[in-house]
């Protein structure tokens, strides 16, 4: 289970650059895909009273998935599969990992952002949902109607640390990203589980 958690945390860091719209201007045209280092720090939000609001990514949300407080492990467990679920913030923070007691079963990593953290808001994030810094998910993004204020999911094969599925859901001015390691399930099942996670998050709004 620790290996899955570390993999999910690493995946989140590697995919953040793409989805927040950071990156160079396409490089020098040599086709190697490399770009100059950039500052991927999210747009600064107005100061808030720490006693009055959670760390919501600058979105004004009344929930916070990144510290595991919004969704208990007991709620997430049945979405992922059978077994006892745990919720843990990885070292360094940044999100919440939900994992079952059997490390071969699916695990998911949730992160929370404000829409202004992404180039072109939710539309920009959704347009790049299948692209990560370590390679693409070889799948077709699917728009999900009736979940939050907008949702998209993609599932498919990838190499190395690429997740088996990624989903985004918009709740007000908050975007939550779910990165799934499916444990080798078929793409349709990985998509179904990720969609279930997005539905659970949407219910927080």
UniProtKB/TrEMBL annotation:
Compositional bias ranges of the Low complexity kind: 34-47
Entries under PROSITE patterns matching the protein: PROKAR_LIPOPROTEIN (PS51257)
Region (Disordered): 24-65
Protein name: DUF3558 domain-containing protein
Organism field: Nocardioides marinquilinus
